[in-house]
Amino acid sequence: MSQKKRLSAIMGAPIQTDVASPAHPDSSTAYPPVTGVTPPPPVAEKRPAAARSIAAMWAAARPVAAQDGAVVELDPGLCEPSAIADRVPDATDATFEAFVDQIREEGQHTPILVRRHPTKPDRYEIAYGRRRTRAATALGKPVRAVVQDLTDAELVIAQGSENLAREDLSYIERAHFARNMERAGIARDLILKAMAVHRTELDRYLDIAESIPAPVLTIIGPAPKVGRPRWLTLADRIRAASPERIAAVLASPKLVGRPSDERFAVILTELAAPQPQKAKPKAETLKDPRGLKFARVERSTTGLRLTLDESIAPGFGDYLADRLPELLAAYRTSRG
């Protein structure tokens, strides 16, 4: 199914066909001008048709009477992400710096979509465009935005429709987005519309997202080249590993400085390797002055086992057991 048809199915209205881009990029968004708002200066539009503004498609899918937004400039500090995260943060994402450089040189081609924050009158909530907002913040510039009156459902659908157009949104990020919508109480039917998937595929996304613990996903990041089969393999290995082993793998120095896909590969490999077996401590034998073995001491990571030979010292076991509270008290006193 083409991108236009999927968006049309989500929005319930036909998507307009492409037309030649006008000289001013703002006029390509199909938003009417608003009196008193000065649009930002023209920027040369270099984007291919396949990457045209999602904001324009969203506006085209809504009734004309609802097209009450105009492209304006906002302080990015006033724009807050929606409560439903779709991106998995990656501190090693080298593409973000290139993205900032592109906006610095060419300007922001596509406006973000926001609504007035439902509980903070002086702020806005981002439907899509978090990365552009971050770039504007890094550059110390206003972010070009379209302000729409969106319901909660419309916000989720708009966010999902933008995700459909992202070639760089990884498999785990889509699964992460679906899980976050479900945890936020979004109805399954609305999640299906937002992600444009069948129920079976949505179940797969949710299963993967629930199988990868948050600490593991935080360390790995978005892993853009990793698809569902390898995530399933990782989920199986995580289920088979102890919490201690998982923690040790996540702390491995092999992960330092590697990009997200390589961090995934390291963790997948480390969890597949046989876990080294610790040498079992040898039992210690205790002898009396005559050289007779009267006790055996076995130590482990969780405790100590003492076995007494009653034939060598009859009644010594009872004697020792009766005095254990006294010995413990003396031990604690000696430790201060």
Description:
The structure is a single chain. With 336 residues, this protein is an alpha/beta fold. It has three domains: 3-169, Conserved hypothetical protein from pyrococcus furiosus pfu- 392566-001, ParB domain, CATH 3.90.1530.10; 214-272, no CATH class; 284-334, no CATH class. The protein is 43% helix and 11% strand. The protein has helices spanning 3-11, 54-61, 94-106, 130-139, 152-164, 171-183, 188-195, 199-211, 214-220, 228-240, 243-250, 260-272, 316-322, 324-334, and strands at 71-74, 79-81, 112-116, 124-128, 143-147, 284-287, 293-299, 304-308. The strands form two sheets. The chain has a five-stranded mixed β-sheet. A three-stranded antiparallel β-sheet has the order 6-7-8, with no helix packed on it. Strand 6 and strand 7 (293-299) form a beta hairpin. Helix 3 packs across helix 4, helix 6 packs across helix 8 and helix 10 (228-240) packs across helix 12. Residues 1-67 have low confidence and may be disordered.
